[in-house]
Amino acid sequence: MSNTIPYKSFCWSLGTTSFRTKNFNKTIEEQLSLLDEFWNIPENTDCEWSGNKELQIRYYDFMFRKEFVEGSSNNKAKDAREKTSGLVDIGLINEERKITLAGMALLDVSKSNVFSTNNFFQIPRDSFIYLKQLLKTSNNVNGKCIRPFIVLLYVLSKLEYLTMEEFTYLLPLCTDEENIEFIIQQIEKLRAHDISIDSIIIDRLMTMDNYKAGLELLLKNDVNEDIICTVGINRKSRDYDKPYFLLYNELYNVFIKNDKTATINLLKATKKVKIGVLWRGYLFDTIAEKAIKKEPEKHLNATIFSTVKTVEEFKKAFYKMMHLFKAKATLSDYFDLNRRYIKTTDIILFEDDTVKLDIVAKYFFYSIVNKLYKSAFVPSSKLFDDCKLEEIDNSIVIHEKVIINGINNEFNTNIKDISEAYMILEKNRYQRLHHLIDNKFTDDKILILLDLFKERKDSEINSMVTDNADIPTIFEYVLGIIWYKISNQEGKVLDYMNLSLDADLLPKTHAGGGEADITYEYEKTKYYPRHTLLIEATLADKTNQRRMEMEPVSRHLGQHLLSTNDMNSYCIFITNSLHINVISDFRSRKTTIYYDSNDYSKYINGMKIIPLQTDVLKDIISKNKKYKELYNIFEKAYQSDLKPLEWYREYIGDYQ
Description:
Blueprint: H1 24-39, H2 42-45, H3 53-65, H4 76-89, H5 101-112, H6 125-136, E1 139-141, E2 144-146, H7 148-159, E3 162-163, H8 164-169, H9 177-191, H10 197-205, H11 209-220, H12 225-231, H13 243-255, H14 263-270, H15 276-283, H16 289-294, H17 311-343, E4 348-351, E5 354-357, H18 359-372, H19 389-392, H20 400-411, H21 418-440, H22 443-455, H23 458-464, H24 471-486, H25 493-496, E6 500-501, E7 507-508, E8 518-522, E9 531-538, H26 542-564, E10 570-575, H27 580-588, E11 593-596, E12 599-605, E13 609-613, H28 614-622, H29 627-639, H30 644-651
Parallel strand pairs: 9-10, 10-13
Antiparallel strand pairs: 1-2, 3-5, 4-5, 6-7, 8-9, 11-12
Helix pairs in contact: 3-4, 5-6, 7-9, 7-18, 10-17, 11-12, 11-17, 13-14, 18-20, 20-21, 22-28, 26-27, 29-30
């Protein structure tokens, strides 16, 4: 029997799984920069990309020389296509890998390193470009056009929020008008506990002709490997489904023949299946072979197979579970990708296991979504253009009154103008920050993070904080949070941290980088004068510290003092392990003149730099010391005349 049941997509996804990377924003910006440089090389300028393996190989080698990719590749041309395909999908480059007008707009922002907001939504400039691109981005699902981001806006307008499970497994099933309304209704039933996510997925699949045909074929025929491979409807190759025949047989032995001694063989059969972990979690309460051999019935979970009486019922159960787990594996694979692309807009919040619109975007899009929704089923002719919002769809017209009314409704206020609205939104940002700190950055978790930074366990750091920022950026961010807590959560720390933050107030890294320091502003109190504290941070080890940090730290502070003439301002330098001559150099700055390099008549008679190892920072956190106490400790230390090594041990902390 030949494979006569075609695979048909049951969901949409943003981008491609081949372009799923950490540091997502930075990677996109670097890729645009690389393409810009590559196409300006004379031998490449007039070449066509499509079908040109030689050119594609040259681009892969170019990426390798630029350290954008690592290691060897068995298929350089394919890898070059895959590394760029995600940018094609959202219109930043075209099929020929030439940068579009939209891509050039993003590249210009990256090169300028100016990401501050300049738009109604109060989101960074790059995020605003991503927002416009995602509003235009579409998928072709079995010949039908769907714009996923507009679908998300529409679904949120009807449901207010999505749980992470609903976002992962149900939202991508919204592939046309009929399915969108079906999924919305099913989510409402799910929240009323009348239905399960698994049953929604199965019901959705079984509306499709190919899945109906597969079940009919299975029911009408004796089962062999060929039948299983046919009804598996594998999107790559029917041969991938051969292990399911063994799984079918062992399930049949256990549940139809009632041979419980075959349970251990069933466990082994699940290990042959690529997504066998889903089957094992469903069928067994343990994966310990010894335990299952000893008491097979005890370790079988109650499942759909537990109640089957006939071969027909068994076949239906097997078919549904096979395709349920396949679908969930695919949807899980797409989840991370969809989340990364959607987060680039910075209008969607992913917090507390829910997905929802940020406040300005919520009231704006809710007011126009019914009109905008009509565009969800037709491709945009503006995908490659750097266009205005209203050029994407004529329903997208900014009305400040909508936001003002929305803010009043959200917070029970009575504001009259947009400036007041933004003030309330800023207050709300800090409330969300405090919630984030209380949950994600408790003292215990921060102490763990500081140890992870010292040991350079980068993957664990990414897991605890975010994987859309590199480790040095996360280090600066965590230090900013620490200093905010040390300062009794007073001051505009979101401004003081010279970092880009996403909608969830977590850091993201850009290709151009940014200022390395945190600039903390303090008003006058009885404990200290009005001043600015510069916090400089590095993860460079002792070997590289002197070369990388001594000059920039003193230059940043020197320029600040020259520009403000505020001699109360000073700098703290934080690192995991201090080089002794870094300590010595910074102490020498107390009596060293710093000149304005453009005007030698301007200079500073010494500057205050306090170096700290993160072990000292851990001690400050553990003992709950606050800035009003630390300021005087640092000032007393600064005034000392001890030699650098003795000075550090006497006033700052242990030094090995």
